[in-house]
Amino acid sequence: MTDGSTSLQDRLSSVRDGIADAARAAGRASDELTLIVVTKYHPASLVRELAALGVTDVGENRHQEAQAKAAELADLALTWHFVGQLQSKKARQVRRYAHVVQSLDRDSVVDAFAPTESEPDPPVIDGFVQVNLTDDPDRGGVQPDDVEAMVERVLRTGTIALRGVMAVAPLDEDPRRAFARLRGISERVRRIAPGATDISAGMSNDHAEAIAEGATHLRIGTAITGKRPSAP
Fold first, then answer.
1. Strand partners of residue 125
2. What's the pLDDT band for 70 if we cut at 50, 70, 90?
3. Is residue 215 helix, strand or coil?
4. How far apart (Å, rounded) are the C-alpha atoms in residues 232 and 159?
5. DSSP secondary structure string for all residues of 55-107
6. What pLDDT, on the 0 to 100 scale, is given for residue 2?
């Protein structure tokens, strides 16, 4: 094993230990949590190293990069999560390799997954409604007051299995408080879609707070992968 992979193993072990500690502190079991390693701008070779270390879920932000990595690593049993802002015109392409789309935030994106005359029986993909926890309407995500309408739209497609909600904590707010709001939104969603019990929240610097507020999916990048390379 190379020095680079040993370093990667150390970082991954440290994050896993931290997740286990945070779960215990919250009175939860660590096996309730899904760790998604976000590998934006990192090469496919690093994803292969992660898979060898037991990582099963990988997150990507950019369609072209995700598509290429998924094709190169098709021999691995990985679950690919698309976590970046999605253009509606790319939705059907993303569905060819991604198992989960965590950034359903606009009507046009949701509608792009619906059946059409040319594709009357498309495959079902798992999805999360992304919620905007800031006061900035230009940030990605549905405004909290509009979440129920978006959930109902997702359910009507018949081609998205709604898993729950996703959000990023605002930079200028205590993350625990932000994730508490997300937890409340999740409870509202479950009144419409009882099976949508998942909460995707928490990244490298705030996953302990997310776990304390009920997160089931953690999207962690640099704490595991190391410094992100420059955009290609």
1. 160
2. very high
3. coil
4. 33
5. --EEEES-HHHHHHHHHHTTTS--EEEE-S---GGGHHHHHTT-SEEEEE-SH
6. 40
**∠ CA(195), CA(119), CA(72), 5° rounding?**
80
37 Cβ partners below 8 Å, 6+ apart? 12, 50, 55, 57, 58, 59, 220, 221, 224, 225
At position 110, the amino acid (one-letter code) is: V
**CA distance linking residue 159 with residue 89, whole number of Å:** 16
- Per-residue pLDDT band at 1 (split at 50, 70, 90): very low
Q: What is residue 16's three-state secondary structure?
A: helix
Angle, CA 66 vertex, CA 193 and CA 36 arms, to 5°: 55
Angle of helix 3-25 relative to helix 44-52, nearest 10 degrees?
Answer: 60
Q: DSSP 3-state assignment of 121?
A: coil
Query: How many residues make up the chain in this entry?
Result: 232
SS3 225: helix
How far is Cα 16 from Cα 218, in angstroms, rounded to an integer? 11
Determine the topology of domain 3-225 in CATH. TIM Barrel (3.20.20)
Its pTM stands at: 0.94
Q: Residues 20-37: what's their mean pLDDT?
A: 97
In the chain, domain spans? 3-225
Sign of the CA dihedral running 98, 165, 47, 67: positive
